[in-house]
């Protein structure tokens, strides 16, 4: 299944990060030296995605501006001979074709994905949630495409979570096919630990087929009164196989304060030009605090 289009829902309000997100989109918060959304777009590009649709909402203009040309800035940099900076900002606006559509009401992830129907136009497609930065040896979406090539159907990325956290995720029930791949037999959105069919949680990566749009349209609002993508996938199970891919890598939930901090520290420690100083700063700080 060659997936060339991706949908990135970015309409969410980011309430878990207030007041940080009062006047700026959470997707634009810095992770080391890039806004979080850029990691997700780069993962899509690495997986062969050629065009992206961002499903936006109010207060998200900064994302559009970021992926657009900034003529004044480029002119300024060029006239001052700052060519490295010029190429860096041009690279961002040239990296991929980005389209935008607005989700007019916050009706849930399923409804956000439904806004992509005209853009997708009958092709299989990927959904990447911008809250989830996944750092691994191979981009998560590439690992999922490998599963999709071997096992035709839809694919969701999963990871094990502690039992007590199941109510924060979509949880799957599945039959192991090979290590790291399950055929999904059920999906539940944010079940209480006692009701969770497993501790395998869906993280924000999906490979979907266009039949999902009819399923979403027929899906009633579920958990938290929102139209849930998880519920639409559950409804499709009798007609379309869904596989779960336990990806290799680390997922950072940047919609959460601790996740955002962890992403910054862990990804900075992987950068040769920052790692030495940061390591020293962290150990000095720990010594001072615990002395
Ligand atoms: C969404 C999905 C959920 C998934 C999660 C992963 O929930 O509805 O199934 O497990 O993303 O990040 P949200 O975190 O947007 O409430």
From TrEMBL:
Residues 5-267 form the Nucleotidyl transferase domain. The keyword Transcription does not apply. One of its GO terms (molecular function) is UTP:glucose-1-phosphate uridylyltransferase activity. NCBIfam families: galU. The lineage of its organism: Bacteria, Pseudomonadati, Caldisericota/Cryosericota group, Candidatus Cryosericota, Candidatus Cryosericia. One of its GO terms (biological process) is UDP-alpha-D-glucose metabolic process. This is UTP--glucose-1-phosphate uridylyltransferase. Belongs to the UDPGP type 2 family. Keywords: Nucleotidyltransferase, Transferase. It catalyses: alpha-D-glucose 1-phosphate + UTP + H(+) = UDP-alpha-D-glucose + diphosphate. Its EC number is 2.7.7.9. It is an enzyme of class 2 (transferase). It holds the Pfam family NTP_transferase. The keyword Nucleotidyltransferase applies.
């Amino acid at each position: 299944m060659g997936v060339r289009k991706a949908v990135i829902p970015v309409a969410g309000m980011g309430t878990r990060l207030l007041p940080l997100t009062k006047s700026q989109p959470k997707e634009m918060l810095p992770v080391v030296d890039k806004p979080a959304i850029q990691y997700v777009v780069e993962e899509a590009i690495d997986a062969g995605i050629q065009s992206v649709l961002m499903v936006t909402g109010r207060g998200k203009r900064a994302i559009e501006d970021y992926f657009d040309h900034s003529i004044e800035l480029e002119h300024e940099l060029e006239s001052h001979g700052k060519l490295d900076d010029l190429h860096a900002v041009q690279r961002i606006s040239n990296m991929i074709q980005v389209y935008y559509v607005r989700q007019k009401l916050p009706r849930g992830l399923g409804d956000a994905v439904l806004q992509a129907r005209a853009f997708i136009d009958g092709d299989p497609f990927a959904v990447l949630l911008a809250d989830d930065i996944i750092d691994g040896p191979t981009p998560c979406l590439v690992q999922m495409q490998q599963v999709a090539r071997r096992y035709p159907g839809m694919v969701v990325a999963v990871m094990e979570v502690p039992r007590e956290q199941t109510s924060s995720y979509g949880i799957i029930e599945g039959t192991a096919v090979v290590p790291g791949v399950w055929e999904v037999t059920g999906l539940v959105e944010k079940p209480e630990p006692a009701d969770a069919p497993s501790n395998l949680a869906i993280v924000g990566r999906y490979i979907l087929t266009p039949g999902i749009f009819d399923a979403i349209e027929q899906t009633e609002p579920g958990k938290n009164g929102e139209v849930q993508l998880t519920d639409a996938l559950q409804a499709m199970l009798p007609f379309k196989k869904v596989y779960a891919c336990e990806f290799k890598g680390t997922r950072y939930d940047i919609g959460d304060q601790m996740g955002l901090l962890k992403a910054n520290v862990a990804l900075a420690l992987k950068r040769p030009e920052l790692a030495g100083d940061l390591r020293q700063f962290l150990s000095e700080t720990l010594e001072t605090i615990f002395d």
